[in-house]
UniProtKB/TrEMBL annotation:
Protein name: D-alanyl-D-alanine carboxypeptidase (Penicillin-binding protein 5/6)
Keyword Transmembrane helix part of the UniProt annotation: yes
Domain Peptidase S11 D-alanyl-D-alanine carboxypeptidase A N-terminal: 48-267
Alphabetized Pfam families for the sequence: Peptidase_S11
Active site residues per record: S81, K84, S136
Record-stated family: Belongs to the peptidase S11 family.
GO BP annotations, alphabetical order: cell wall organization; peptidoglycan biosynthetic process; proteolysis; regulation of cell shape
Highest taxon above the source species: Bacteria
Keywords assigned by UniProt, alphabetized: Carboxypeptidase, Cell shape, Cell wall biogenesis/degradation, Hydrolase, Membrane, Peptidoglycan synthesis, Protease, Signal, Transmembrane, Transmembrane helix
Species of origin: Nonomuraea fuscirosea
Gene3D superfamilies: DD-peptidase/beta-lactamase superfamily
Example of a GO MF term: serine-type D-Ala-D-Ala carboxypeptidase activity
Signal peptide (from-to): 1-24
PANTHER family: D-ALANYL-D-ALANINE CARBOXYPEPTIDASE, D-ALANYL-D-ALANINE CARBOXYPEPTIDASE DACB
Length: 372
């Protein structure tokens, strides 16, 4: 039976800090009180959602943000590769998609699923996002993190983006979604991330591409999207699926029919979930606009003001990051650019010249006094 909701307004307070923006954690379930239930929450007056073996799920209208049904919406579980949706949403605005990079050996040797990066090949950032979202490449995830300035910076950026989306159940520890202690997300948060991603044209292009050519050291090869529903479900847009032995199966996806888009997210499914997701999508389309929502996908908070870049961005297609280049340099000397070294030389040269002039002036004064 449908539970009466409380308003979602004024759940979050934002406070500006010198290092960025901090978002206070909510005191009630984000999206409405009913979404705090661990059991099924569904509207009255319509047929119940089809059964699912998923421990947690959310069905929502992407346009209005209305949550149509949910089960343990805010339960925190390991996200597996569905976390790559947050990686992409965070980094797409930060990285020039035409920039060329050569991945490090560390990136190429990531465990788990891979798109097949090689230290001998050069890739556009655009290629890496395809490898990330289509082939679920853990190697592509690390290469993108390194291109963004390193793993620590990327994880900080991803967690800041999660807080901006009000995805407070999400804690990112890896860019790939590989299991790590403390990492978590929820079906509600995955729906928030997917909804935000659908508003980004590049994100939407990557997730909906079925097959594409991918660079190799010599030539190219073809990669295909891991989302089976792109071939099976009418109107499927895509997003991301994931699996690890600890997380079990997870999925977040969206489909559009008749000009309306439904989002479904599931977490911790023990078996084959594709048919169940299709049934949940069908149910969402059948009840949208006909039943009272059980909650709301909240809107993102305003983007924090960006700090000006320390140096100009590389020209598109001209910057290649060599494989031997570490993502972060350790020594202060290595961090110096040619311009800082030149400035240092000018300072030393100017000081030496001033000292010689002062010494000459002192000698002149002593000689002058001796003549008096």
């Amino acid at each position: 039976m449908w539970t009466k909701l409380v308003p979602v307004t004024a759940l979050i307070a934002a406070a500006s800090l010198t290092s960025g923006t901090a978002y206070a954690a909510p005191t009630t379930p984000v999206g409405g009180e009913a979404l705090g239930s661990r059991g099924l929450v569904a509207p009255a007056g319509v047929k119940k959602p089809p059964k699912s073996k998923a421990t947690s799920y959310v069905i929502a209208d992407a346009e209005t943000g209305q949550v149509l049904a949910a089960k343990d919406a805010h339960g925190r579980y390991l996200p597996a590769s569905t976390l790559k949706a947050l990686t992409a949403l965070t980094l797409i605005p930060k990285l020039d998609k035409e920039r060329k990079i050569r991945p490090s050996r560390n990136a190429c040797n990531q465990e788990g699923s891979a798109v097949g990066l090689s230290v001998k090949a050069t890739y556009k950032v655009d290629d890496l996002f395809k490898g990330l979202l289509m082939s679920s490449g853990n190697d592509a995830a690390m290469a993108l993190a390194e291109t963004n300035g390193g793993l620590d910076k990327t994880m900080s950026d991803m967690n800041a983006e999660a807080k901006r989306l009000q995805a407070f159940d999400t804690v990112a520890k890896t860019p790939s979604g590989l299991d790590k202690p403390g990492q978590s997300s929820s079906a509600y948060d995955l729906a928030l991330i997917a909804r935000a991603g659908l508003a980004n044209p590049d994100f939407k292009r990557y997730i909906s591409t079925k097959t594409t050519k991918f660079p190799a050291p010599k030539g190219h090869y073809e990669i295909s999207n891991h989302n089976k529903l792109l071939w099976r479900y009418n109107g499927m847009v895509g997003v991301k699926n994931g699996w690890t032995s600890k997380a079990r199966a997870s999925f977040v996806g969206a489909a559009t029919r008749g000009g309306h888009t439904i989002v479904v997210s599931i977490m911790r499914h023990e078996g084959f979930f594709w048919d169940e997701v299709a049934s949940l999508l069908d149910w969402g389309f059948s009840v949208r606009g006909k039943a009272a929502p059980v909650g709301q996908l909240v809107n993102p908070l305003p983007v924090a003001a960006q700090q000006p870049a320390a140096s100009a961005a590389p020209s598109p297609g001209t910057s290649v990051t060599p494989a031997a280049q570490p993502p972060l340099l350790d020594s202060a000397a290595d961090r110096q650019t040619d311009s800082t070294r030149t400035v240092g030389s000018l300072v030393i040269g100017g000081g030496l010249l001033f000292g010689l002039i002062w010494l000459g002036y002192g000698i002149y004064r002593r000689r002058a006094r001796s003549r008096l």
